[in-house]
Design brief:
The complex is a heterodimer of chains A (about 625) and B (about 100).
Chain A lengths: L2 H5 L2 H18 L3 H27 L7 E10 L2 E9 L1 H24 L6 H20 L3 H19 L6 H32 L4 H9 L4 H18 L8 H4 L5 H9 L3 H10 L1 H4 L3 H22 L5 H21 L3 H28 L12 H4 L1 H15 L5 H15 L3 H25 L15 H16 L11 H5 L12 H23 L5 H7 L1 H8 L4 H46 L7 H31 L1
Antiparallel strand pairs in A: 1-2
Chain B lengths: L3 H21 L3 H25 L6 H31 L13
Helix pairs in contact in B: 1-2, 2-3
The chains are: A mainly alpha (about 625), B mainly alpha (about 100).
């Protein structure tokens, strides 16, 4: 139907990059023009993405579409630049372009009057373009290029208000932490190139299917996993994501939903043929994801900063997705990625609206009773939170249920229980936030006012998506999502009423508990805090992970510095000083030959003449004998 | 009978005496005289080789004449330098002139 759109899919990537180049080179003096161009570019990309997705999902496309041109051609290394479009790509295209478009429209209001308005839109464009290039790539080399571009754009946007030290440090932290993961990712790519001689996904899938050396596959999988662990902020490289909220709030929405952290989960899905080849690698993924899900959810319970709560919630949900990938429910993981992108960007944009209205106040205890002042923001936020908590029939319920079902039916009882516990915690901390900030009796929200339409309309659109996006993967629509986003050998489990009911019940239980504690105050949260002071302090300080890393960094850096100091003092200085001493010493000895007496110099000359004459004679004899013999 | 080798021997002795004088005499005028001695030993070589080895041209004799002319000029310059230096330092002892060093 829209088959022609596949041939134009490269435009989806190119348009935002073109907008970036135009703004950066020519238009940065005109903020309105810059913003319009950027929004126009991402809007066109969105329309094209819809056409592509329509062809993929509705046009009955059975085979993945692939086109490529040769980019590098060297002996032993051929790198292509190409497009690969299948179900996963289709989903990601819609999610990325839609969220990026709404965030850019919303930013018109949020960033209004900022001195860096033009550059903000230039960075937004390059961010979206890089992410689109990543999801469209057909080989690991190209994916790595765009992967790094995403990292660069996130660095620029997190550190957008670089006048603040905290923003500057957060940007560097995000960049450096990602670099640790990228190191493993790059090593894995090199291994793939060396062992299999190709980086193309389809080519590799064929090669790996017939490859039997499991040890090598496990090593490659673990190295490859380092990339998503960094990018999708899984434990132990999660530390950058909560700090990344130092950027403007719409940027957080983008990073947490569509463009940055989704890249890691997407990579696991895209490289699923490598991971699924060895159960050991899958187990590592599941454990990393499951641990992160629980770990981050417990931290989110006690945070007071509205964006920090959402940030840890993102960590937790990403852990959920990664865990789903690890237990073989790749489809469910991607499904959750999609629904999460909608409701998490909604939550962040709504939080941005609150922060905007509260004059940059982010502490939920200083807000209160916002529901009367900001009805649209409040109710869209509640919808997002309900979706995140997994209340039926909102989108989060369906995707979370798919993951829990995958764990339950796949026989992973441990992960099933962990997932259910995390679902309970999620519902609790989200509604703690809502009851305190939006319905609380604090007087903080007195002067708040509703945000302009340019900010509320994206909220409403995302709220609608958070409500309905789950149906595409639900039994009501016959699991349409699972039909397109799948992998060879995927098993689909029949819906299990018990799993559904339990997941809905724990979500409701979490909400009720939050209501009882923070709205009705039947149980005093202050008393609870006193009683569990040790645990509270541990959680409030995020398990001291940042401090531990800081100490480790100190030890490592100090140790390296000591070694290098020794090397500098004794080896480098030794060589330099040795040369100086040698020269000086030689001078001290040789100075005695310089008497200043003309006759001494004449004597040296005589000796020189005799030596040269001797050499000439020896040479002459040698030549004569050579000639005659 | 006096032959070619005797000339060469005499020239060598003269040259050696000249070198000895150049390297060991304290008096600058004596050093200049020793240089003349060396030049003359070379002249002797030129003439002798012209007589015994290259007999059909007078190249050696011509060279000897040129050397005598150049030596005269050299003595003039050398003596002028010595006089000039004597006016400065009130001495012609070479040991007193030791500025050419570090």
């Amino acid at each position: 139907m829209f088959a022609w759109s596949l041939e134009l899919a490269w435009l989806i990537v190119l348009l935002p990059f073109a907008a970036f180049a135009l703004i950066g080179l020519f238009l940065h003096r005109w903020p309105r023009l810059s913003a319009s161009l950027s929004i126009l570019a991402i809007g066109l990309s969105f329309i094209l993405s819809v056409l592509v997705a329509a062809h993929v999902f509705l046009g009955g496309m059975e085979e993945a579409f692939e086109m490529s041109i040769r980019w590098l051609d060297m002996p032993g290394l051929k790198v292509d630049m190409g497009l690969l479009i299948d179900g996963i790509t289709g989903v990601m295209l819609i999610v990325v372009t839609l969220v990026a478009l709404l965030v850019q429209v919303y930013s018109l209001g949020y960033m209004h009057g900022d001195p860096g308005f033009s550059s903000y839109y230039a960075y937004q464009s390059v961010f979206a373009g890089a992410m689109l290039g990543l999801v469209l790539a057909n080989n690991f080399g190209q994916i790595f290029v765009f992967w790094e571009l995403v990292g660069l754009a996130s660095y620029l946007l997190i550190g957008f208000w670089f006048g603040r030290d905290s923003a500057k440090n957060a940007a560097v932290k995000a960049f450096v932490t990602n670099r640790v993961g990228d190191f493993g990712f790059l090593l894995a790519i090199l291994f793939l190139q060396i062992i299999f001689g190709t980086l193309n996904f389809n080519g590799l899938a064929g090669e790996i299917a017939g490859y039997t050396n499991t040890a090598v596959l496990i090593i490659i999988s673990i190295l490859l996993l380092a990339g998503p662990i960094g990018k999708s902020a899984q434990f132990p490289l999660h530390v950058w994501l909560p700090d990344a909220m130092e950027g403007p709030t719409p940027v957080s929405a983008l990073i947490h939903a569509a463009t940055m952290v989704a890249a890691g989960v997407y990579l696991i899905a895209r490289a699923y043929f490598i991971f699924s080849a060895t159960p050991e690698a899958m187990m590592v993924i599941a454990v990393v994801g499951g641990f992160t899900a629980l770990f981050a959810a417990t931290i989110a319970l006690v945070q007071n900063d509205i964006k920090r709560i959402l940030a840890y919630s993102t960590l937790s949900q990403l852990g959920y997705m990664v865990m789903a990938m690890g237990i073989g429910a790749m489809t469910a993981g991607m499904f959750h990625l999609m629904t999460h992108a909608f409701f998490k960007s909604l939550l962040f944009l709504a939080a941005g609206s609150v922060i905007h209205a509260m004059a940059n106040e982010q502490d939920i205890w200083k807000m209160g009773n916002l529901k009367d002042k900001m009805p649209v923001t409040t109710w869209t936020f509640v919808i997002g939170a309900l979706a995140l908590a997994g209340i039926p029939p909102l989108s989060g319920f369906w995707s979370k249920d798919e993951i829990l079902l995958g764990a339950y039916a796949g026989g992973y009882m441990g992960f099933y229980l962990l997932g259910t516990l995390v679902a309970f915690l999620t519902a609790f901390y989200m509604f703690r936030l809502i009851f305190v900030a939006f319905f609380g009796s604090n007087k903080g929200g007195e002067h708040a006012h509703e945000s302009p339409a340019v900010m509320t309309v994206p909220l409403v659109i995302l709220a609608v998506l958070a409500l309905v996006a789950g149906f595409v993967g639900s039994p009501l629509m016959d699991y349409a999502f699972a039909h397109y986003v799948t992998y060879p050998g995927a098993v689909h489990h029949d819906p299990n009423a018990m799993v559904m009911v339990i997941s809905a019940l724990v979500a409701i239980a979490g909400i009720v508990l939050a209501w009882a504690v923070y709205q009705k105050e039947w149980i005093s949260h202050l008393a609870l805090r006193e009683k569990f002071r040790g645990i509270y302090t541990l959680l409030y300080n995020k398990y001291y992970i940042d401090e531990i890393y800081h100490q480790l960094g100190q030890i490592f850096i100090d140790g390296t510095a000591k070694v290098l100091f020794w090397f500098d003092i004794y080896v480098v200085n030794g060589i330099v000083n040795g040369i100086a001493a040698l020269t000086g010493g030689a001078g001290k000895v040789l100075r005695y030959t310089e008497t200043g007496q003309v006759q001494t110099y004449a004597g040296y000359m005589l000796v020189g003449v005799i030596v040269i004459a001797g050499l000439v004679m020896i040479a002459g004899f040698t030549m004569r004998y050579t000639v005659f013999m | 009978m006096i032959g070619f080798q005797h000339y060469l021997l005499l020239a060598t002795v003269l040259f050696a005496v000249g070198i000895y004088g150049v390297l060991s005499k304290r008096n600058a005028v004596a050093v200049l005289m020793s240089v003349e001695l060396m030049l003359n030993s070379v002249n002797l070589n030129f003439v002798a080789i012209n007589r015994y080895l290259v007999t059909d041209h007078a190249v050696g004799q011509l060279f000897a004449l040129i050397v005598i002319v150049v030596a005269a000029a050299e003595v003039a310059v050398g003596l002028a330098l010595i006089i000039s230096i004597f006016r400065q330092r009130k001495s012609v002892n070479l040991n007193d002139f030791n500025l050419l060093k570090w």
